[in-house]
Amino acid sequence: MKLSGAFYATLPALFTGVAGAGWEFVQNGTSGILALEAIIVSPTLAVFFDFAGTGDPLMINGHSAWGALWDLETNQVTALDVLSDTFCASGSLLSNGTMVSVGGNFLAGTSSASDGRMALRIFEPCPSANGAGCTLFDNPDLVHLTETRWYPSSLRIFDGSLMVVGGIHEATLFYNTDPVNSFEFFPSKDGAVPRPSAFLERSLPANLFPRVFALPDGKVFMVANNQSIIYDIEANTETILPDIPNGVRVTNPFDGTATLLPLSPPLYIPEVLVCGGTNSSDQIPSANLSSQDPASDQCSRIVLTPAGIEKGWEVERMLEGRMMPEMILLPNGEVLIINGGQTGYAAMSSVSDLVGNSNADHAVFTPSLYDPSAPLGHRISNEGLPTTDIARMYHSSVSLTPSGNILLAGSNPNPNVNMTVKFSTFGAHTTLCREYRVQYLNPPYMSLARPTLAGAPSKIAFSSKFTARVTIPASAGNSSVVKGALLTVALMDLGFSSHAFHSSSRLVWLEATLSRDRKSLEISSPPNNRVYPPGPGYLFLTIGDTTSAGVHVMVGSGAPPPVPDQGRRI
Ligand SMILES: *[C@@H]1O[C@H](CO)[C@@H](O)[C@H](O)[C@H]1NC(C)=O
Ligand SMILES: *[C@@H]1O[C@H](CO)[C@@H](O)[C@H](O)[C@H]1NC(C)=O
Ligand SMILES: *[C@@H]1O[C@H](CO)[C@@H](O)[C@H](O)[C@H]1NC(C)=O
Ligand SMILES: *[C@@H]1O[C@H](CO)[C@@H](O)[C@H](O)[C@H]1NC(C)=O
Ligand SMILES: *[C@@H]1O[C@H](CO)[C@@H](O)[C@H](O)[C@H]1NC(C)=O
Ligand SMILES: *[C@@H]1O[C@H](CO)[C@@H](O)[C@H](O)[C@H]1NC(C)=O
Ligand SMILES: *[C@@H]1O[C@H](CO)[C@@H](O)[C@H](O)[C@H]1NC(C)=O
Q1: pLDDT value of residue 133
Q2: Cα separation values, 95 from 79, 125, 558, Å
Q3: Per residue in 539-555, pLDDT tens?
Q4: What is the atom index within ligand 4 of the atom nearest the CA of 296?
Q5: How far is CA 560 from CA 328, 462, 537, in A?
Q6: 371 Cβ closer than 6 Å to some ligand 2 atom
Q7: pTM (2 decimals)?
């Protein structure tokens, strides 16, 4: 039978029925370094980055490490030898599966690290499940950016290369006072001459870590401060879109977050959701801001078609204000809103009434779910979601894992290990300075009988069909499958987490047909490399209330960027 059209619009009905443990937080292991950036690099490994010279307990070559491999199976950490300072960098995977960490910092004399501001650190796909022998190539003399960039964003685009957006040249405590208002690419385009951006100029001084998304036509949507544009990479033009309503600002140091909502065939109409941040003026000096200023509870959503842009942003409210939240796409098409504080700002040591060194306070301990298909006003709920006692404030990271649960690490609103201050290391729940405890948030399906997906080809061409074996637990029920509305296959990029933003994160629904014997699925790959920028991804099968573990695939040829257009136009 044909199960296409089984996309998120039908999903609310799923969350009734099968009993299990429900959502739960589980703490397991410690990160050894502060996990202020995180990216899943293989089915079993995540990479964490910290900043250099902090005295972290994890050692390498006789000094504290600032990069590490986290083993998702054993919950153990191994130091990575990083040469340059990864402080406040970003990154992504390329079309050949290689992870690139971009930009960073330089604090002369504080550590053995070299200047990371032009760094392009390369982590090749590594076959070792536990990370033994996996290395990071980090030599800024050989491979580097054109500009020095601290606080840049990175995005995998339609040709599988990386677009690097914005940043700051030099250390600054709060606003972007020494901006890099340009875009560049890796591998470089235009003879490595950066492209100036009027948008970045206009969105000063709160435009660090712009929230940027690859649209299904290859253009790039960007939000910085309270402004948004669509950037056409091929024509090098910026089209101004409406501002976020009500003066709400969402990029560092006013970190809200943003996500591209799941893309559905046949049209893959893009919609963006932006949540949290602040409506404080960006003209107020940081010394006149307070850690107790309420964060914004506003979510704003826009459909990126001419009609949607004409209509503008639709506003809805979270259950609480959030500074520095992060949004995680879940394999069933819902969005997890997690982390952050109810008051204050991002960054540290800049407002009038610091909490330790934190510019923010009142950590939010309970995540919410956002259901994109529910009617306005009924999309956000924390019913059934658990409460943690570990605050995740500035410099925390979060990612969906290939197993289908959510990895949480980091949090450090203080510059260094300090056991005495509020938000200190390892303390009771009101303390969150350098937080090394790693947690998982387990969705209910982690404790239920789960469907499985196996035997998909490891490499999937665009606009093609492939077959995978499935098993469907009896408890998933037959009626749900027979009705044809409750089976979905999600192709996901798990993204790179840094500073309350998950760059390159993506969910594309794939059409799928279940065989008569219910043992195999015929799945259609994305139509082309603009709908899903070529590179690695995970396939998740959701049936009823349960979701399979993710299956790692390479989408496209796996060739190094830039790769030519592939597949069919939509
Ligand atoms: C922590 O993870 C290890 C390795 O997966 C596992 O053996 C152990 O049972 C886990 N502990 C808890 C408390 O979940
Ligand atoms: C966005 O911010 C700018 C600069 O602070 C301001 O002039 C403009 O009115 C804001 N837009 C909205 C919709 O509030
Ligand atoms: C900032 O605070 C100082 C001291 O209270 C005050 O004199 C100044 O006017 C304030 N500036 C702004 C822009 O609010
Ligand atoms: C600014 O945000 C705060 C906190 O959400 C809210 O109470 C206030 O009404 C907002 N002000 C405006 C002008 O929207
Ligand atoms: C820890 O923080 C407290 C309060 O801000 C400060 O007095 C103390 O000097 C700090 N200790 C270290 C080792 O930085
Ligand atoms: C679903 O159908 C299979 C085969 O027809 C049967 O063995 C199984 O018990 C059914 N499961 C439920 C929950 O009805
Ligand atoms: C992937 O492509 C990048 C950029 O060209 C290159 O630096 C890297 O070595 C390539 N990795 C592999 C495994 O081909």
Answers
A1: 92
A2: 26, 11, 6
A3: 999 988 789 999 999 99
A4: 5
A5: 27, 16, 16
A6: no
A7: 0.92
